């Protein structure tokens, strides 16, 4: 979760404002939302992902399912694909997840009934970057119609995203081999500070004519973690197909949670549908993204100034909340035990944990770990 | 071509269909008796005063929005268990239970269904009363269970087919799962009397069945939270380690906030810890952790003495209005001159009433009187008010005389 420079959770100012508006609005009650969610939320959420000028929206071939966070959107999408994607029983359809990925991806698809979950090459530990060739090879060799889970931006946990040129290559192979893109978009706006930039990959795939799913989370970019605000955006060939898909999504939602929680969706819908509040929100998002970017550049410059062995440009080239530092498990153990700095055994750090007050200490500690422990 | 060319159009939701038709109707006297949400005597949704107060208190605390634990808000889950079992229950005191927050009743049922599918290896069979809430079947089926039924409702008397139920239940294979509605049976409104619950507990125990209670209307049925939880507490007293799903949608009017809980009663606190760990493993790939808003409101109410007192009064108020509407409907039917026995309307309890009306009569009510209900003759008494109960009685009399 995001932290301020004081190391505190941050409720976005625009969220506070909108919550007050909601509280003061006596015409609102706690009645059930429709099964697929609050209509104003669904439309606005998908519009954020696909862009105001999206051809798919203009052609009325998109659908949305309000979900319990990004996890809920992934799960509903997975349940649908298992039932309906390629024939009526997809338990054997291969699902490819990046190596590494968010650890819950595996469980989501397993519990949705998929039995053949594989990994695709992604992180190149030696060069500390994207293993593009490995990735493309896996796409070439995957059985036709396989499902690929793609991180829309700010790959979790590596922070390493394909460049636009690399996305184009990925898309070309996927189109040729009839592979299904299921995007996980948990950091739109939070990664680069720009909503459009962070949605580039999803929009490119749409412009290339793909049918796809995009699981969106508003946990980070709205700071609404515990309200569970998410959206599954569906892009189809035409309105008729999307309508039938939504009717089956309803059946899946009905047996999972019946209808989604209203508070978080109201906050997001109100914000996104008011030009003024929308601008305010974008400002709040940029504040968070900028702080993370600042911490990245400050950490890198300190490491380089200390002369810490190795190269540290990956700290600023990576994007989003997480960074794969390249520290090995022994070095990580040193960080935890000797320096009381907590990070994952994979060497992943949460950039949000860095503050102007602890930057020096963290940099020095990394320096020690790298020079003392091989 | 599309990936979705072969995707069938899902069947329209029967209850939604009722509301759609109601919306299209231009008759000023129209009545929507399909709605499964409480309405006040003006036919409006009712936000409880204790809820508004709890919301104001929560707002003033300026809390953050950090993720809840996977199992939910601890103050909420503890209070939910105490509400269901009674805070002096031996189960609560010994800690031999685990309660996790669920997405209202549906989500809690689903967690339980998935848990049983994964860990209750003795049987795949879940026995539902005939009839039961329409969503029970697909929830258990999607979780990988098989559905069976036991006799429950007697359409000839519009009341409980007790001997049929006892007969069927006594023949259920050992170690099967039986689902029971704790109070205010949905859709019939027919509940066993306490003497009958005692016999049901005995036979269920004899057959060594796993008991799954669905309690969506505690407080809302009789107006008394302890009375409505009597069956749940009696079964536990008889040594039956039940599993339980609770909803706060109706009794706190928190419908869209999705406040609910799933409880497993265990042998001891150590077993409860192991069960908890597995429930979390089920929840994480479904939605990671639950929504805070409804749970915070419910917790504030249950844990703040003044608010809790106020809530008990308000929930009794809702239950009393429903009971009053039942009484008025019957007396108005008599006034209309109906010769039928409408006693079941006042014998039944909770939001819903199985009127006994046949599909053709339901159809006529819709077409001729703009009174909308589901085809099975179920009405939501919450949709009846002192302003329209006379009209409803008149309409029913016309199609049944």
UniProtKB/TrEMBL annotation, chain A:
Question: What Enzyme Commission number(s) apply to this enzyme?
Answer: 2.6.1.1
MF (Gene Ontology): L-aspartate:2-oxoglutarate aminotransferase activity; L-cysteine transaminase activity; pyridoxal phosphate binding
Source species, domain of life: Eukaryota
BP GO annotations: aspartate biosynthetic process
* Secretion signal span: none
In terms of InterPro entries, this protein maps to:
Aminotransferase_I/II_large (IPR004839), Asp_trans (IPR000796), NHTrfase_class1_PyrdxlP-BS (IPR004838), PyrdxlP-dep_Trfase (IPR015424), PyrdxlP-dep_Trfase_major (IPR015421), PyrdxlP-dep_Trfase_small (IPR015422)
Q: The Aminotransferase class I/classII large domain covers which part of the protein?
A: 2-366
Q: Which SUPFAM superfamilies would you find in this protein's record?
A: PLP-dependent transferases
List keywords of the entry alphabetically. Answer: Amino-acid biosynthesis, Aminotransferase, Cytoplasm, Pyridoxal phosphate, Transferase
Q: Which NCBIfam families match?
A: PRK09257.1
The entry's other comment says: In eukaryotes there are cytoplasmic, mitochondrial and chloroplastic isozymes.
- PANTHER family named among the record's database cross-references: ASPARTATE AMINOTRANSFERASE, ASPARTATE AMINOTRANSFERASE, CYTOPLASMIC
The protein depicted here goes by the name Aspartate aminotransferase
User: Taxonomic lineage of this organism?
Assistant: Eukaryota, Metazoa, Chordata, Craniata, Vertebrata
From TrEMBL, chain B:
One GO biological process term: L-aspartate catabolic process
Record's subcellular location: Mitochondrion matrix
Q: Which UniProt keywords apply?
A: Aminotransferase, Mitochondrion, Pyridoxal phosphate, Transferase
Catalytic activity, reaction form: L-aspartate + 2-oxoglutarate = oxaloacetate + L-glutamate
Query: What molecular function does GO assign, one term?
Result: pyridoxal phosphate binding
> For this protein, what is the EC number?
2.6.1.1
Read off the Pfam families from this record: Aminotran_1_2
Needed cofactors, names only, are:
pyridoxal 5'-phosphate
GO cellular component, alphabetical, reads: mitochondrial matrix
- Domain Aminotransferase class I/classII large: from-to ranges: 29-396
Q: What family name appears in the similarity comment?
A: Belongs to the class-I pyridoxal-phosphate-dependent aminotransferase family.
Q: Other notes on this protein?
A: In eukaryotes there are cytoplasmic, mitochondrial and chloroplastic isozymes.
Provide the assembly information: Homodimer.
Its protein name is Aspartate aminotransferase
**Organism of provenance:** Serilophus lunatus
């Amino acid at each position: 979760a995001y932290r301020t420079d004081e190391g505190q959770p941050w409720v976005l100012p625009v969220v506070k404002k909108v919550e007050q508006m909601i509280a003061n609005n006596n015409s609102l009650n706690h009645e059930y939302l429709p099964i697929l969610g609050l209509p104003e939320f669904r439309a606005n959420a998908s519009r954020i992902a696909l862009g105001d000028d999206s051809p798919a929206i203009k052609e009325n071939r998109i659908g949305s399912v309000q979900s319990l966070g990004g996890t809920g959107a992934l799960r509903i999408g997975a349940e649908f694909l298992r039932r309906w994607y390629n024939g009526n029983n997809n338990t054997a359809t291969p699902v490819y997840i990046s190596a590494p990925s968010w650890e819950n991806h595996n469980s989501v698809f397993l519990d949705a009934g998929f039995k053949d979950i594989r990994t695709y090459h992604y992180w190149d530990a030696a060069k500390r970057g994207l293993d593009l060739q490995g990735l493309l090879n896996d796409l070439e060799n995957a059985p036709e119609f396989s499902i690929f889970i793609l991180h829309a931006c700010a790959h979790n946990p590596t922070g390493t995203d394909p460049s636009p040129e690399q996305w184009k290559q990925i898309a070309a192979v996927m189109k040729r081999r009839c592979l299904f893109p299921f995007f996980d978009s948990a950091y739109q706006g939070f990664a680069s500070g720009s909503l459009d930039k962070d949605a580039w990959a999803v929009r490119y795939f749409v412009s290339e004519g793909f049918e796809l799913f995009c699981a969106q989370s508003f946990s980070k970019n709205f700071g609404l973690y515990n309200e569970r605000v998410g959206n599954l955006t569906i892009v189809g060939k035409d309105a008729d197909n999307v309508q039938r898909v939504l009717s089956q999504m309803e059946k899946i939602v009905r047996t999972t949670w019946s209808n989604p929680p209203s508070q978080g969706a109201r906050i997001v819908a109100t914000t996104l549908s008011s030009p003024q509040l929308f601008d305010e929100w974008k400002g709040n998002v940029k504040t968070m993204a900028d702080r993370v970017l600042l911490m990245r550049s400050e950490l890198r410059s300190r490491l380089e100034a200390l002369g810490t062995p190795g190269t540290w440009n990956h700290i600023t080239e990576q994007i989003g909340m997480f960074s794969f530092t390249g520290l090995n498990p022994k070095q990580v153990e040193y960080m935890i035990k000797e320096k009381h700095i907590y990070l994952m055994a994979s060497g992943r750090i949460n950039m949000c944990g860095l503050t102007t007050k602890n930057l020096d200490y963290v940099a020095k500690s990394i320096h020690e770990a790298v020079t003392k422990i091989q | 071509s599309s990936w979705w060319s072969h995707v069938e159009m899902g069947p329209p939701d029967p209850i939604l269909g009722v509301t759609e038709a109601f919306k299209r109707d231009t008759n000023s006297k129209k009545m929507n008796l399909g709605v499964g949400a409480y309405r006040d005597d003006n036919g409006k949704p009712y936000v409880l005063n204790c809820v508004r107060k709890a919301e104001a208190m929560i707002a003033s605390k300026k809390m953050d929005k950090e993720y809840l634990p996977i199992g939910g808000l601890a103050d909420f889950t503890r209070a939910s268990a105490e509400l269901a079992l009674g805070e002096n229950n031996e189960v609560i005191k010994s800690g031999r239970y685990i309660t996790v927050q669920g997405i209202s009743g549906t989500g809690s049922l689903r967690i339980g269904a998935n848990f049983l599918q994964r860990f209750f290896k003795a049987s795949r069979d879940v026995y539902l009363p005939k009839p039961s809430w329409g969503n029970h079947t697909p929830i258990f089926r999607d979780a990988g269970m098989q559905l069976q039924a036991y006799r429950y409702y007697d359409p000839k008397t519009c009341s409980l087919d007790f001997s049929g139920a006892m007969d069927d239940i006594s023949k259920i294979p050992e170690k099967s799962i039986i689902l029971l509605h704790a109070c205010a049976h949905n859709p019939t409104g027919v509940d066993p009397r306490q003497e009958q619950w005692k016999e049901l507990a005995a036979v269920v125990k004899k057959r060594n069945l796993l008991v799954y209670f669905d309690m969506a209307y505690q407080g809302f049925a009789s107006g008394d939270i302890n009375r409505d939880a009597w069956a749940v507490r009696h079964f536990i007293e008889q040594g039956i380690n039940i599993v339980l799903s609770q909803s706060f949608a109706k009794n706190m009017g928190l419908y869209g906030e999705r406040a609910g809980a799933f409880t497993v009663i265990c042998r001891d606190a150590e077993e409860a810890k192991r069960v908890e760990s597995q429930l979390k493993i089920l929840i994480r790939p479904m939605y990671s952790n639950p929504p805070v808003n409804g749970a915070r409101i419910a917790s504030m109410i249950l844990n703040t003495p003044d608010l809790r007192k106020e809530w008990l009064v308000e929930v009794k108020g809702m239950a009393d209005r429903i009971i009053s509407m039942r009484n008025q409907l019957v007396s108005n039917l008599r006034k209309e001159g109906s010769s039928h026995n409408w006693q079941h309307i006042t014998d039944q309890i909770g939001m819903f009433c199985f009127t006994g009306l046949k599909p053709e009569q339901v159809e006529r009510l819709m077409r001729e009187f703009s009174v909308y209900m589901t085809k099975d003759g179920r009405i939501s008494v919450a949709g009846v008010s002192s302003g329209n109960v006379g009209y409803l009685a008149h309409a029913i009399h016309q199609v049944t005389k």
